[in-house]
Amino acid sequence: MQSSASTFPRSGDRHFETLTGDFFGFENLLAEDERDIVMRVREFLRTEVEPIANDHWSRAEFPFQIIDGLRALDIAGLRYEGLAAHYGTRLLSGFLALEISRADPSINTFYGVHTGLAMGSINRCGSDEQRERWLPAMARMEKIGAFALTEPHGGSDVAGGLETTARREGDEWVLNGEKRWIGNATFADLVVVWARDEADHHVKGFVVAKGTPGFSATKIEDKVALRTVQNADIVLTDCRVAERDRLQRAESFRDTGDVLRLTRGGVAWGAVGCMMAAYELALAYATERVQFGRPIAKFQLIQDHLATMVGNVTSSLALVVSLAQLQDHGVNKDEHSALVKSVVTTRMRETVALAREVLGGNGILLTNNVARFFADAEALYSYEGTREINQLIVGRAITGMGAFV
């Protein structure tokens, strides 16, 4: 993928080369040390992830060999103070999500589930002792996390329809139920499981370790998006978890929602990376593909497609940057994250479709890469809140009236 000179320099900073898809040079909003982190990650992705992405996607297998390299980058704990050499802003973590997704949305989903949903649940809902017990090893990627909320019979209505139960017996909790679409669950060392307490009917969080009796995770087969992600069906059958492994500050679904509010923005950043990659690939193809004696990039209709794509990428990047700034100032609300996720993933869908169109029949070949981003976009469009649910969150905020049922 190409790079081009930034159009958004800051006086006093040394020059950085920004991505072709970053038309306004938003990346230069990062501090110099943050840009250095992004550059290290970009190089790792270019050399270690991009060359193997299609092969693992095609075989629906996870490239475990890259975990050591990710660990060496020391980025898993950067959003949590004291867990990485650099304590990063939301802007930095957003650009890293964009960067990883630009190489492979599946790897960004793995990374987001581990660092955002799993680590975020423990950081937000765990006691001081629990954070000290689990987060350092997770930040070093010595232990990988998963997040189990969605169920076979519940998606958008999970807040009120959670069927997995938890029953306290002395110093233990007995979990029963099923979970579906749980990323990383086939190999995770720690799975944050959300269940409804039979006694008070409130949703509580539990950290279930790999190998716990009564816990089983089966890989979901035949996906057509994010195939590299190891999603699983989980079955909990009289699965016993110690009280010390119950997240001590998770007392209701409101606490679960706090985690989702923080991670929903990360999905939007990943969507920007997905559409940016598709745009960059289409642009490169258009300048090289010759028809009727000239590159197709010289045709007006192709330029119209390309201009629409870069407009979608740029406006979406502006939205996620603004969201990150709200988060860094502690004033982000549910409706902010919901609006950004809804708008950005909708623009992503149009962008990857146009990229596929620019490549014509070659666009359906995995070897030309666009097909992978085209397919993966469908999963990003749906998870962490569908467009419709996010639109209703925004609608409630602007009208003062809920319209969910």
Automatic annotation (TrEMBL):
Domain Acyl-CoA dehydrogenase/oxidase N-terminal: 32-142
EC number: 1.3.8.6
Name assigned to this protein: Glutaryl-CoA dehydrogenase
GO molecular function: flavin adenine dinucleotide binding; glutaryl-CoA dehydrogenase activity
Residue intervals of the Acyl-CoA oxidase/dehydrogenase middle domain: 146-239
Family assignment from sequence similarity: Belongs to the acyl-CoA dehydrogenase family.
Limits of the Acyl-CoA dehydrogenase/oxidase C-terminal domain: 259-398
Gene Ontology BP term (one): fatty acid beta-oxidation
Cofactor names: FAD
InterPro entries, alphabetized: ACX4-like, Acyl-CoA_DH_CS, Acyl-CoA_Oxase/DH_mid-dom, Acyl-CoA_Oxase/DH_mid-dom_sf, AcylCo_DH-like_C, AcylCo_DH/oxidase_C, AcylCoA_DH/ox_N, AcylCoA_DH/ox_N_sf
UniProt keyword terms in alphabetical order: FAD, Flavoprotein, Oxidoreductase
Superkingdom: Bacteria
Pfam families: Acyl-CoA_dh_1, Acyl-CoA_dh_M, Acyl-CoA_dh_N
Keyword Flavoprotein set for record: yes
Organism: Actinokineospora spheciospongiae
